[in-house]
Specification:
There is one protein chain. This protein is α/β, with parallel strands linked by helices. Helix content is 34%, strand content 19%. Strands 1, 2, 3, 4, 5, 6 and 7 form a 7-stranded mixed sheet that branches. Strand 3 and strand 4 form a beta hairpin. Helix 5 crosses helix 6. The longest helix is centred in the C-terminal third of the chain and has 24 residues.
Length: 268
């Protein structure tokens, strides 16, 4: 009987290397590529003043969160409004998108104003984006694959369509002056042209990626949907869902109103 300490190990499954291979020096692996360096955050007084304060984004959109993070607002609180978006589509697109964003901002601002645990917010940002056809129809998210294909065909055949984004910024005022808050808003417009030479086959292939299934107008310009777009007139980030330059301007305006009030109070 063989002693356990002399038991043989099972034969390896892989064949042994050839003598020629064994005689060669081991291959030197190339060093890994250096990690890509992210850009430094914007060193702006406005951004710096908000880094440790409550900045609330009244939207669940990951695209808006990502855009704000790109300029240094990384500690956002995401608190989407739960109000139904049921304004009549008979409103002009400008009015429709602005009123929707204003309702979102007010709803979230009011619910967070008396937050005893975290304190009042420094700024509440809300936005709403709509896609409007050449005939003035406000386009919703596609309801089905067939609806999605028909929507994109219409945008291609019509040539141009417009994307409106309304942004509303709200901030509490230091004084008790009515209404107790500052608010600023803007509506940005971008004209988008689909390529007339886009085939039905390409539209179907895009629809089946499901990228645009949850987006108004049925496409995402920041993703695969860029292959549908021939040109734009206006800002690209407005089509994504948040015009950054305009948003920074709104934040600066609402915060400056608070500073002006403090200066007025100190002069009295």
């Amino acid at each position: 009987m063989t002693d356990a300490k002399y038991a043989y190990a099972p034969a390896p499954a892989e064949p042994p290397p050839s003598y020629d291979t064994a005689a060669q020096p081991p291959a030197v692996k190339p060093p890994p590529p250096p990690p890509s360096r992210l850009p430094l955050p914007l060193n702006l007084p406005l951004i710096n003043s908000l880094r440790d304060r409550r900045v609330i984004l009244a939207s669940a959109s990951p695209r808006r969160k990502q855009l704000l993070a790109q300029i240094g607002l990384t500690k956002l609180e995401i608190k989407p409004s739960t109000l139904p978006e049921d304004l009549p589509k008979s409103l002009a697109p400008f009015e429709y998108v602005l009123q929707t964003a204003a309702q979102k901002a007010m709803h979230v601002y009011s619910s967070e104003l008396d937050n005893t645990e975290l304190g009042e917010p420094a700024v509440v940002l809300a936005a709403d984006t709509i896609v409007v056809s050449l005939s003035g129809q406000v386009l919703e998210k596609p309801r089905s694959e067939a609806d999605h294909i028909a929507m994109l065909k219409m945008l291609r055949n019509n040539g141009y369509h417009r994307v409106y984004t309304a942004v509303v910024a709200m901030a509490p005022l230091a004084s008790a002056r009515h209404p107790g808050y500052a608010t600023e808003s803007t509506v940005e417009e971008t004209t988008v042209r689909f390529g007339r030479d886009i085939s039905d086959e390409m539209l179907l292939a895009y629809v089946r990626t499901r990228e645009g299934a949850d987006k108004a107008g049925g496409y995402a310009i920041q993703g695969i949907g860029a292959i549908l777009v021939e040109r734009i007139e206006g800002s690209w980030d407005n089509v994504v869902g948040l015009p950054l330059r305009a948003t920074l301007g709104l934040i600066e305006k609402v915060l400056s109103q608070n500073e002006e009030e403090l200066d007025d109070d100190s002069d009295e």
